[in-house]
Amino acid sequence: MKRKFLPVLLIIFVLSPVYSALAASFEENSPPDLMKDYNVLREKIRQNPRDVPALNSMGILYARSGRIEDAIKLWQYALELDRSYVHLYNNLGSALKQLGRRSDARLIFQTGLAISNSYWIHYNLGLLEKEEGNIVAASKCFKKALQLNPGFQSAATRLSELGYNPTYPPINRVQRPMSVGSYKPPVSIDEIDLKPMYPGGDWPEKNTSYKSVYGKSGRNNFARTFNPLSQASCTQIIADLKAPAKDRYIALTFDDGPHSTYTPEILEILRKNQARATFFVIGTRAEAYPDLIAQMARQGHAVGNHTWNHKSLAKSSTAEAIDSLKRTSELISGLTGKPCMIVRPPFGHTSQRVKKLIHEQGWHEVMWDSDSRDWENKNPDRILYRVMKTIAPGSIVLFHDIHPGAAGMLQTLINACKSNGYRFITIPELIEIAAGTS
Ligand SMILES: [Zn+2]
User: Fold this and answer.
1) How far is the centre of ligand 1, averaged over its atoms, from the C-alpha of 290 (Å)?
2) H or E segment at 397?
């Protein structure tokens, strides 16, 4: 087929009435929220049929819903547009392998390597060699991947499965690889429970001066009606916390993403303010938006594990929970180049069993103490009000970057904190403070 027909074919293909069929299969296999991206991506591709990252993401949606052949068509088309987009070789090769087309898969990986010396492609080629019993070739691939990205846990794990002991580069005490079994989280299980990790293991002091701003209801009673808070009021609320200078830090956290629209908005606000945050991402979504995960890491944010598909860990079997967390952790470390050591259980559902399985991997369970409930009411004024009522020095604030609200109030919150000398730190930094190492 001549290349000029491809965009036309693609448009027909993408706009075909597949939504209900895809939605039905997604209900069972994946979190329903990923399916919501279908319309967003379709619109992006309609506006720009050469949007390669969007085409790549759309292919993931098709593959996830079981339509591998269609996904392959999309990725092949995208590769015509941009031969240097590494994720396409990985996705295409893995899909071909899944269909049993192993020599085609090998060819795709080798073509990709000729264009880009990518650790992901070395890794995927290694997997193919391993499955075919070519142990020496496989170990070479995994070693190469690890050499290019020393934080790539998956490559280290596969290599040790082949009987090699990969040596890790020196990393600081928080970013230990998961294979180090002796590592114990600095905050004990009992201290975390359903409370957030908090320096000293206790809740922040309640400050009575809030009544001057909120009226008699106090911090913890949320009125149905509220007056939008001005920038000046917000700045005053933070000033009233009267924290010692050393305790003036806040950890902003964003769950459930990445999202193709809202995550870039939040990243841009954080960049303009030189503020750092932590994103607890879902594996299926991270796989669909690999560029956003890499961007988070580039901008100095931490990327945490929010499971593969947002299924409650407390309601999963231990084996299922570990699989979901490991798969996500390995994906994140591959995309960021750093081991991923922090886990936020979906819905905040946890138990002694869940904590144990997280800690046994050497990871930290991370909750929150200030809840924006931005999924419930998407009015930015309302979200701001709720955060200002619950925030305290050292708070872990919970947002969701798959909803539009947070981006609308973040600047006001950042201004209020910054003008009072607060820093925005990541969860790994908070853990270091909690452990008394900085
Ligand atoms: Zn969540």
Assistant:
1) 19
2) strand 396-400
Query: How many C-beta neighbours within 10 Å does residue 66 have?
Result: 14
- Is residue 167 in a domain? no
Amino acid at 241: L
Residue reference for tokens 């001549």 = 2
Residue of 122, 310, 400, 403 marked active site: 400
Domain coverage including residue 270: 189-434
Do 228 and 132 belong together in one domain?
no
CB 90 within 8 A of CB 60: no
Are residues 385 and 236 located together in one domain of the fold?
Answer: yes
Please check whether residues 390 and 293 belong to one and the same domain. yes
Residues 377 and 248 in one domain: yes
Q: What is the mean pLDDT of residues 175-179?
A: 29
Question: Per-residue pLDDT tens for 237-292?
Answer: 999 999 999 999 999 999 999 999 999 999 999 999 999 999 999 999 999 999 99
Catalytic residue status for 255: yes
Mean predicted confidence (pLDDT) in 312-322? 94
Cα separation, 369 vs 241, in Å, equals 15
Catalytic residue of the set 255, 256, 369, 374:
255
- Work out the pLDDT band at 33, boundaries 50, 70, 90: low
Residue 182 is assigned to a structural domain of this protein: no
Q: Is residue 169 part of a domain?
A: no
Residues 230 and 353 in one domain: yes
d(C-alpha 249, C-alpha 434), whole Å: 12
Residue 11's alpha-carbon distances to 17, 18, 73, 79, in angstroms, are 12, 13, 12, 16
> What's the CA-to-centroid distance between 83 and ligand 1, angstroms?
35
List, as one string, the DSSP characters of 234-271. HHHHHHHT---GGG-EEEEEEES---TTHHHHHHHHHH
* 349 lies in some domain: yes
291 carries an active-site annotation: no
Q: Tell me how many domains the chain contains.
A: 2
